[in-house]
Amino acid sequence: MPDSYPREHIEDLVDDNLEWSQLHNMMSDFKDADRFQQVRDVLQERVDWDDPIIIPYAEHLYVVAKSEDRWVIKCDCGHEFCEHDENWKADALINVRDSEEEYLEIYPEDMHPHPEYMELREFFCPGCKTLLEVTNVMPGYPLIHEFEPDIETFYNDWIDEPIPTPETA
Amino acid sequence: MSSEHESGESFPHMRREQERVREKKQQGDGVGWDGKTLREQLEELEAKTEETDHYAGFERLEFKSEEPIEYEQMFAQLRGDLVTARETSKEVAATPIVEQEGELCYGLFTPEGDSIAVSTGIIVHIHTMSEAIKYMINHDYEESPGIEPGDIFVNNDPHVGDVHPCDIMTLIPIFHEGELVAWAGGVTHVIDTGAIGPGSMNVSQASRFGDGAQYTARKIGEDLEIYNSWKNDFPDKTRTPDFLKLDEKTRMTGCLMIRDAVFDIIDEYGVEKFKQLSREAVEDGRRGFGNRIRKTMLPGTYRGASFVDALYEGQGNLTREYANENHIMHAPSELHVREDGSFQVSFEGANKWGWHPYNCTPAAIQGGIWVMLTQTVIPNANVNDGAYYACDFHLPVGSWANTQNTETAHAYAWHFLVSAWAPLWQHLSRGYYARGFWEEINAGNANTSNWLQGGGIDQFDKLHAVNSFESACEGVGARYVEDGEPHAAAIWNPEGDMGDAEVWEMTEPLPFLGRAVKPNTGGAGRKAGGAGFESMRTVKDVSRWLLYEMGNGYMTSDGGLFGGYPAASGYILNAQDTDLKERFENGEEYPQHDLDPESGEFESKIDGEITRRPEGISTPKEFDDYDMYLNYLRGGSGLGDPLERDPEDVLSDIHDGYVLPRHAKDAYAVVVNKISDEAKHNSAVQGEWTVDEEATEELREERMEERAEKAQPVSEWYEQQRERIQNEEDLIDDVKKTYESSMRMSAQFEEFYLDFWDLPEDFAYSLSEKAERSLENRFKSGTKQKWKNPTTSHETWLGVGRDDEPEVPYTWTAERSIRDLPTPEASFGDNIAGTATDDD
């Protein structure tokens, strides 16, 4: 097990360029200690903006530092959603698949949910229109706020590093 | 088995131990360590654990840190012995379920019932067996019926420690110098439990009384000899006595191998080392879990919700009129990863249990989650109840997740359990994503159905039951870095496969007409969910034969991740009174598949009474020779925006039979052109296609524009939905009943729901008279608890009422009100809909 993978290896992970045998080894090995920092740094290089990434939040989404005490959820296209502890979906675009016709675009007949029992909510980034999340819920269900990271505990206690700020970036 | 050795001496070690235990009892001592009773020993362990936050008060792992090589040698030897016990003993079994699919596992437990080390296999039961041992200790089995050297116990009662009654466990205590030093336990999934319908998990019963025989932690033998009363009892309570007898011999074989292995370890290292190891291994497992979490996830709160349908309205052969109703399982799932890496898992808001066999007990939920964690968080040999000690569970009493009512049915608890797990995979994946461990991310799993089950008089003119474990081979959810594995495994049996068709045909009078990958079963995504598969079966040489289906139909339980779509849901396809025999005789075509349900191909190749409907569950119905049955095994969910999938991968999907050509365009915006009708690739699909790159690029651009046109700001949608809910428009009774059930179960969920939609405090959905009666009937039924005298650690399962504060914090909140947002234009207007402007 490497304590740390070479940067090129992490770039290949981020860019989806690793062979299955390499991925399998990564799964089987003990986990490398600096993965978070390496992935964060590679992602920071990939985005077209300068706000320091505090954490990768979900595919295409990041928590970034706007100031020392203001963190927001931001898409890699540059669209900013909301404060880091709020539900970005409330600021998204939504399309709901709740008819037979709309289901048949994705699934064959009889192999999709019954529209009266379940709808598919597709959430898009208002900036780049990327499909960021699909949730399958009963009609009438509230929006689900899936992830509230405890960033302070993570940085202060788990990895013992200062939380990035625009000044330190 | 015989108790006589070749020497003529009966199990000399056991006899010596029995003598020592008798002496201790005469002195008033218990069989625990240092003369304690087992209950005293368990209470002391719980108190020390509570007091120190370390298992059994082991704040320091002295043995492991001072003699690490010897510690690892001992642990590896034990682990190896458990795996050997499993691999050897499964050859004793005759059912393909155990012998082929490996539906068995073994564990070695502390005297108090905590697992020290486990075999491979269906290790959900490592924790269910733990519960069964604790039940015996909690209910003073040491006094009656006694726990002594040579005793044999059996359990399959879900309220004691099991998922469902068809998983039967054998437990034997292991003694050294008059002390109980460990327990050996083994579980097999049996083929029939004597429920009201044939098969191991019948679906037509309303309550426990149709679930099949349940044995509550029963002593079935002593002197390592099974009582005649047991030998003459259980075989008549099943339709498959010979299979169950061999399953029992399987479990006994494994348990005795483990017992001998423990004796060898004690001989080699001494009993004190063994005791020390058994304590330290659990504490090490607990710490290992926390360390792994701290290394791979993020602290914080993760939430999700899953649903699955159980439709009974209009089904035949139900045991009670009041069971004739539809159910939806609602599983709100909340995970707190605390500072120390430990877990708090809550199902607050889960709806009421029902008159169906999909209810769960705490043992089922805890064991179930635990087996999932072993496949991702702790994928190594260091698996034991330490992980359980690193997790707190909140399972609302009276919900489907913790009925605390011995009247409820549990035959296929997995239907709800597997579905309720779905968000937990995603919680972990969100943590792995944030931390950069992308190789560990998994969108979810498959709903592990269909379950082909039934029985009657088989091809050998014997009463028989079947339970096809082809379902141990479903598609797996997409990974972040790869597509989901197609037709690969089941969450509850990570080593399972579909089994050999020829072997299934030996034990099932259901010849295979075809077996193939099933297209569009895996969820669409940048990485696609693994595809499921299907088997077309017919029926041959039977009489009074029943078959039924079991799975999801109106709902898909496994959601996609990061923009991936959920896996497909199920449907039922049967044909009865067919002309299949004539087609065989005349050498005519007959259906081997149902790859595309819309194609009409199945119907074009068979005459008969065809049933095709989008539900997943049917109650037992009669089938005769040459009838047909589609066994459709589900796929996994997708990950990422499907428009980001490489078009060449979509082309491969078509040729591999994973995606129907028309869905390349609809789901992936990939334009393909057929270039050959004749070519055949790696699937049952005929033809060859090629990607039109230019058209694909154009189509994808158009699709992005369509998204912008069609989608609306969430704030607008919210207002429409709020109005819909207030006016109860287009909301069916089954959905409203589910919300009402959850709100009546949970003050916290009710507050969240009303708050989120800004509804008045007295808001309630109006229900049909039937739905209202059903809820009243179940809410009034109260609890009938199985654990009468629990020690502290099990008290948390009991007595948590609707208005109590959950022991795991409930943090679902609507505090960020969408109504307070600026106008839709401000958030979503043209000025920000273009490229990134932040640094311009």
TrEMBL record, chain A:
InterPro entries: Aceto_COase_bsu/gsu. It comes from the Archaea. It holds the Pfam family Acetone_carb_G. This is Acetone carboxylase subunit gamma. It comes from Halovenus carboxidivorans.
From TrEMBL, chain B:
GO terms for cellular component: cytosol. GO terms for biological process: glutathione metabolic process. Residues 1-36, 781-840 are annotated as: Disordered. It holds the Pfam family Hydantoinase_B. GO terms for molecular function: 5-oxoprolinase (ATP-hydrolyzing) activity. It comes from the Archaea. Residues 68-642 form the Hydantoinase B/oxoprolinase domain. Residues 1-27 have a biased composition (Basic and acidic residues). PANTHER family: 5-OXOPROLINASE RELATED, HYPOTHETICAL 5-OXOPROLINASE (EUROFUNG)-RELATED. This is Acetone carboxylase subunit alpha. It comes from Halovenus carboxidivorans.
